[in-house]
Write a structure and sequence with these properties.
The chain is mainly alpha-helical and 130 residues long. It has one domain (22-112): Ankyrin repeat-containing domain (Serine Threonine Protein Phosphatase 5, Tetratricopeptide repeat, Alpha Horseshoe), CATH 1.25.40.20. The chain is built from 5 helices and no strands. It has helices spanning 23-32, 61-68, 71-79, 94-101, 104-112. Helix 2 packs parallel to helix 4 (94-101).
């Protein structure tokens, strides 16, 4: 039976940010970013931890993946709970880099997952400002 003005029934889907990445997904990211120096390990050639990695400039893997236009890695990091508003080099967020590099799909993804448009970087610029 269909009722008028009834709310549509939407199947339950767990929110993207509640999904845990698999060991295979983590290994794929580590392979993709094998060239990054692991500053946390005794051996800097060891694979990085994608969720805690910070480079010598202060950028996290999220910012690095955005700069490369690597949407699958961005999606995985955000789904694992990485803060989309964390700041890195010169106070830039992932959204600053997405806008600067013209990665519109990544910018849209970040915005739908809580990226702030009001965070100014070290130059006083908002995401998208030049």
């Amino acid at each position: 039976m269909i009722y008028r003005n009834a709310a549509p029934q939407i199947p339950f889907c767990p929110p993207l940010w509640s999904m845990k990445p698999t060991a295979t997904q983590i290994a794929e990211i580590q392979k993709r970013y094998h060239y990054l120096v692991n500053y946390e390990a005794a051996d800097p050639n060891n694979p990085i931890d994608p969720f805690t990695y910070t480079d010598s400039n202060g950028d996290h893997l999220l910012q690095i993946a955005v700069q490369r236009g690597d949407l699958p890695t961005v999606e995985l990091l955000v789904s694992a709970g990485v803060d989309v508003n964390q700041t890195g080099d010169m106070g830039c967020t992932a959204l600053h880099y997405a806008k600067l590099k013209g990665h519109d799909a990544i910018a849209s993804f970040l915005l739908t997952h809580g990226a702030s448009v009001t965070i100014r970087n070290g130059f006083g610029l908002l995401p998208g400002e030049k």
